[in-house]
Amino acid sequence: MRLLVVAEDAPDRSATTGNGSTMITAHLVPLLAKDAEVDLAYFDDGRRVVPDDVRGACRRVVALPVRPSRQALVATPFTRLPRATWRRASGAAVAAVAGLAAEADAVWVHGLHAFAATCAAVEPLATPPAVLAHEVDPWADHWRQRASGRTGAARRYDLLQAARAQALEERTSRLARAYAVVAPADAERLGARLGRPVLALPNGVGDRDPAAEASAAAAGERLAPGPTVGFLGSLDYPPNVDAVQRLVGTVLPRVASRVPDVGLHVAGRRAGAEVTALAGGAVTLHGTVAAPAAFYSAVDVMAFPGDLGTGTKNTVNEALLAGAAVVASRHAARGLADEGQLVLAGSDDEVADEVAALLLDPVRREELRARARAWSAARLPSWDDAAAALLAALV
Fold first, then answer.
1. Could you tell me if 344 and 366 are in contact, meaning their C-beta atoms sit under 8 angstroms apart?
2. What is the pTM of this model?
3. How confident is the model at residue 210 (pLDDT cuts 50, 70, 90)?
4. What is the DSSP letter of 258?
5. Nearest Cα to Cα of residue 284 among 270, 269, 302, 266
6. What CATH number should be reported for the domain whose range is 2-204+382-394?
């Protein structure tokens, strides 16, 4: 099979420059190339470099142009596309994708912001290839959720982006043989809105070398001598910013009333002013961590509060795989069955109470760690599993 991958960003699994979306293509393209002849077309905004193993797995790698951000801002009142989508929907990009798609048996278009260019390229073809539209997270829902917590111009902007995203989802749905997101709940909700089946294609978890991940976790050293609570995530992502604010403002004081010497350790890339302002005292900001598994093993409890965000929270799965003791809100653990591998909580106060209880009970904490490791080995999908599911959706 000749497979064209159209990605809204360069594949990138780096802890520094990658994100939850770019890691998917970085992991899957080399695996897909074992069973298909792969061409990769990615939108190049200059922030990322395609890894050597991804480039080497492909027959061709084509960098597609991205319009300047300032030009997109000026065009916002006049285009019917989300701003980041319009940046990628230039005539040059459409022409390049059309040339590649004409030679392909199937197209995997990854990310909402690549949908418009791919639709414009594929729709006119006399014999269009099969298209798998992989939105990852439903963006119309994301913008509506964000708008619910904002006012004024910011709220109006988010609702406009949501309406444009929904129109693009509907257009792409008419073209695609298969439509997919990551989380089952998102798939059910989006499928009802689009009036068609939407697949839930879960991400793989961990590196392709589980031994290397286990070694990184074993090498982790404690971050502080006293009791420690950890949080890890991209710190420019609004749901993660909200989670850190909840940890500092509500969870930590309540935990400290029972565990006075507790420290909160927050790690992640691209922390903005809202997060950096919270550092100090019992709160330590670590920035990017090169080996997440080592961070998970270096704290006593990982805590994930909050009720914002769509899709699967990758860091919860990664923490479980590393054998961390995890306390998470039901929303943060969305998509995970409650099988004793983590502690689920409702409100922020409940998160705090469960964290404090684990900090005060090292035996129970170690039992939870063991259950997390065993459950992850049995239940979490590998990247090979994810690649097989994606290919099955295309044939």
1. no
2. 0.87
3. very low
4. T
5. 266
6. 3.40.50.2000
